[in-house]
Structures are given as C-alpha cells and as structure tokens.
Amino acid sequence: MRTNGGRLAESQRIAGGMNHSIHQRELGISHLDFLRVFPAVVSGSEVHRSADGAFVVAEHGRRLTVSLHQQRERRIGMLRIPTTRMTFEFAGYDPSEVDAFFERFNRHFHRGGG
Question: Which sequence spans correspond to the domains of the chain?
Fold first, then answer.
C-alpha cells in the first residue's frame, strides 16, 4: 500500500452520492487474517454475513457492506504475500464518518515496519 506523508493512502472512491459511497482497496492480507481483525474495527457492532458472503454492519439507519474479492498471491523473489482486494459500501454515512471508519481500519490493520 502506498503511503502519503507517513500515513496510509486513502481508499480509492469508485462511486457515491449523498450519504452513499463505495471505496476499494487492496491489502497484503489473507481472508483468515481479515476475519480475525475486522471485529475489532467495528467493536460493539454486530456483523452479519450476507448470502453472497459479504460482511454487513447495519445500525442506526446506516449500513456498511464489506466484500472480499478472491485472495491472490503477490510474489517477490521467494517471498509470497497474500493479497485481498476489498470493496466497502457505505449507506447513510456522512463523509466524516467514512473517514473515521478508515482511520480505525488503518490502525487495526497496520503492520509494523521500520
């Protein structure tokens, strides 16, 4: 993931309207690692799985849907890194709430480095 002044790069916003937006990002993470960490990001909220496997958080008239795409592998020499592209759909969230979500998300999914 690219950085911007030491901060994680923003998600790519691919669609949206009034209190509705769709963002995509790709992380060097497996689906299993996502399942382990994501509940902490939405701590206190109930997460459901939809029929298509997406993760859904619905509360207070808002809805967040996170879809994981097929897990892939990035190879750098002998190193193999799992990668997953994710789509985040926010309905009923204002832009500041979306920004706050991604700040929490980045804190929980940040991996150490020098």
Answer: 22-109
